[in-house]
From TrEMBL:
SMART domains: BRCT, HhH1, LIGANc. Its cofactor is Mg(2+); Mn(2+). This is DNA ligase. Residues 596-675 form the BRCT domain. The gene is ligA. Belongs to the NAD-dependent DNA ligase family. LigA subfamily. GO terms for cellular component: cytosol. Keywords: DNA damage, DNA repair, DNA replication, Ligase, Magnesium, Manganese, Metal-binding, NAD, Zinc. GO terms for molecular function: DNA binding; DNA ligase (NAD+) activity; metal ion binding. HAMAP family: DNA_ligase_A. It comes from Microbulbifer donghaiensis. InterPro entries: BRCT_dom, BRCT_dom_sf, DisA/LigA_HHH, DNA_ligase, DNA_ligase_AS, DNA_ligase_CS, DNAligase_adenylation, DNAligase_N. Coiled coil: none annotated. The active site is at residue 121. It comes from the Bacteria.
């Protein structure tokens, strides 16, 4: 069969589409600044696919259509690295890092400070990408450092891996080293879909990335949210690269590679220690997992003089953070009851130091999670703790299971009030049916009602709530407003002054807003934003209480599930009675102005970063939301304004790169005062 002759205009159009789509990928994956809407990108890609279908000779290795994945492999071929991929030595405290710097300066016979490049150590899979004449020829895993596996077919599916390098001056042969990882958001979505499909979920983002890269069917890899971040080079032929590591990375970025926006230069080792401390503080806010910082002597000439020892370079050191995963023994399982009646299994553990603290309890989530893990009492389990996140059991070390391991029995009756535990079809959570009869639910409901984002009752802490319920002084949230001074002073550790302060705080809390009141009621799935949207839509409580599920779905961001919970809550007689009791006690609010579309900041996305000194972060967020703004946690091309306080880091840098409006706290306060807020 003879191929059709390709008209010149078709060939030119195919090349034009290549360039448009390649630039769109670079803007989206590398710069985080998409210029082309998804719908337009899809149209251009379909147009190119049609051209290539009609004229197969137009298909090239670097075509954007060739990322989708090919037929499955039977196995991975071995690859020998031209330049070994060495591992790094580790430091675990400041003294070890200072000792590394001393060795560097001793070997260089220098008393002057050494400049270092600082990069977050992504928790992913090390990869080697070989480009010849600017085209991706091969991708390989690190393996043992000398020999890895050829995973080119899988890596080609990753959008942030350039198939052809941008711009001129590309070396004839260029080997790029980088880390393939899975962002936290992508990992959460992947596990959510797996759980919904009844499939096994991944333990952590690193395991998910590794499993995705080692798929023999690259069409599976293509569906996984993987990213590449370049951190260095190996073999280079036919060009001279810059003489400093940070400049090499910036050059890689210009050629089409994503590099880490947290990369920095440190003038000396003390600056490295400060960098490690600062990044450690913001570690949990990063959109990806890191397990430490890599410090490299920045000057390439000094790197060459320092050389290597065994399997590691003398010029680099990984300063690790405390481990976020450890093994320990599951001693027992207890069941706790939450505000909405959810019965949650809690693992009682042999204490273990993980994530910087000693952990003795961890969540097991629900019955489905226990079955998925296959965990038993007596098992050795892997515990994960990330920052302030509740520690959780993520896997079982089955090889260490003792012969007397016991099956976990989920209760059929509430461990607090003995009411039946009920399960709703399609819902993983089992719930106590006792409602406010259950003292555990009553305690949690009152704690939520009094919390800062709800009625903000100062001085009513968790322990006092438990004491009031246990002493029989409090049977409902409305009962808070009927507490007497005489009752309170009789409580243990409650003096006359503390009791009066609490009564004053209760009186002060009666003057609230409708969004805060709705949030305080503790309706399932109604958080701050939903409560605010409901208040804006209905203006007052009465029409909201009478609304049916269909009309509730007309509210912004309210879907069928939330609408059902809201309608169901207001139809319950005890909820109606409690609301009336609260109003009779004097709880009141001003009507909300209906219709969020006319609010001054409607449709705008704001981001808060750094330390705010006059307002707390949550107060600033509340003010902005009351003006109609959406307050996001990360900066993107859709962000309208960034409010930056002292200590603002990568979000501020990204805002400047994208040309986004930036204001400080004083400017924010001035704007809020202009809008009528008394601050």
């Amino acid at each position: 069969m003879t191929n059709k002759k390709i008209p010149a205009e078709k060939r030119e159009r195919a090349q034009e589409l290549h360039e448009i789509l390649q630039r769109a990928n670079y803007q989206y994956y590398v710069l985080d600044n998409p210029e082309l809407p998804d719908s337009e990108y899809d149209r251009r890609l379909r147009e190119l696919q049609e051209l290539e279908r009609e004229y197969p000779e137009l298909v090239t290795q670097d075509s954007p259509t060739q990322r989708v994945g090919a037929e499955p492999l039977s196995s991975f071929a071995e690859v020998r690295h031209e330049v070994p991929m060495l591992s790094l030595d580790n430091a675990f405290d400041d003294d070890e890092l200072l000792e590394f710097d001393r060795r560097v300066r001793d070997r260089l016979n220098s008393k002057d400070p050494v400049e270092y490049a600082c990069e977050p150590k992504l928790d992913g899979i090390a990869i080697s990408l070989l480009y010849r004449d600017g085209m991706l020829e091969r991708a390989a895993t690190r393996g043992d450092g000398t020999t890895g596996e050829d995973i080119t077919q899988n890596v080609r599916t990753i959008g942030s891996v350039p198939l052809r390098l941008l711009h001129n001056g590309v070396p004839k042969v260029l080997e790029v080293r980088g880390e393939i990882y899975m962002p936290k958001a992508g990992f959460a979505e992947l596990n959510k879909k797996a759980a919904e499909a009844g499939e096994k979920t991944f333990v952590n983002p690193r395991n998910a990335a590794a499993g995705s890269l080692r798929q023999l069917d690259s069409r599976i890899t293509a569906k996984r949210p993987l990213q590449l971040c370049a951190y260095g080079v190996g073999l280079v032929e036919g060009a001279t690269l810059p003489d400093r590591h940070t400049e090499i990375l910036k050059q890689l970025n210009r050629w089409g590679f994503r590099i880490n926006s947290e990369m920095a230069e440190a003038r000396d080792i003390q600056a490295c220690i400060e960098y490690h401390k600062k990044l450690g503080e913001k570690r949990e806010q990063l959109p990806y997992d890191i397990d430490g910082i890599v410090f490299k002597v920045n000057e390439i000439g000094l790197q060459r003089r320092l050389g290597f020892v065994a399997r590691a370079p003398r010029w680099a050191m990984a300063y690790k953070f405390p481990a976020q995963e450890e093994m320990t023994e599951l001693l027992d399982v207890e069941f706790q009851v939450g505000r909405t009646g959810a019965v949650t299994p809690v693992a009682r553990l042999k204490p273990v130091f993980v994530g910087g603290v000693t952990v003795s309890n961890a969540t097991l989530h629900n019955r489905d999670e226990i079955e998925r893990l296959g965990v038993k009492i007596g098992d050795t389990v892997v515990i994960r703790r990330a920052g302030d996140v509740i520690p959780q059991v993520v896997s079982v070390v089955e090889s260490k299971r003792p012969h007397n391991a016991r099956t976990i029995e989920f209760p059929t009756h509430c461990p607090v009030c003995d009411s039946p535990v009920e399960s709703t079809p399609g819902e993983a959570v089992a719930r106590c049916s006792g409602g406010l009869i259950c003292s555990a639910q009553r305690k949690q409901a009152i704690k939520h009602f009094a919390s800062r984002k709800a009625m903000d009752i100062d001085g009513l802490g968790d322990k006092l709530v438990e004491q009031l319920v246990d002493e029989g002084l409090l049977h409902s949230v409305s009962g808070l407003y009927h507490l007497s001074l005489a009752e309170l002073v009789e409580l243990e550790r409650m003096g006359q002054k503390s009791a009066q302060n609490l009564l004053d705080a209760l009186e002060h809390s009666k003057d609230t807003t409708l969004p805060k009141f709705l949030y305080a009621l503790g309706i399932r799935e109604v958080g701050e934003a939903t409560a605010r949207n409901l208040a804006r839509h209905y203006g007052e409580l009465e029409p909201l209480m009478q609304a049916d599920e269909e009309s509730l779905q007309e509210v912004e961001d309210v879907g069928p599930v939330v609408a059902h919970f809201v309608a169901e809550f207001f139809q319950q007689s005890h909820a109606q009675e409690e609301i009336e009791a609260l109003r009779q006690a004097g709880v009141h609010w001003a009507p909300e102005e209906q219709g969020g579309a006319e609010q001054p900041l409607s449709g705008q996305t704001w981001v808060l970063t750094g330390k705010l000194e006059t307002l707390s972060r949550s107060e600033a967020k509340d003010y902005l939301q009351r003006l109609g703004a959406k307050v996001a946690g990360s900066v993107s091309a859709n962000t309208g304004t960034v409010v930056a306080g002292p200590g603002a880091g990568s979000k501020l840098n990204k805002a400047r790169e994208l040309g986004i409006s930036v204001m400080d706290e004083e400017e924010l306060l001035a704007m809020l005062r202009e809008r009528g807020f008394e601050i």
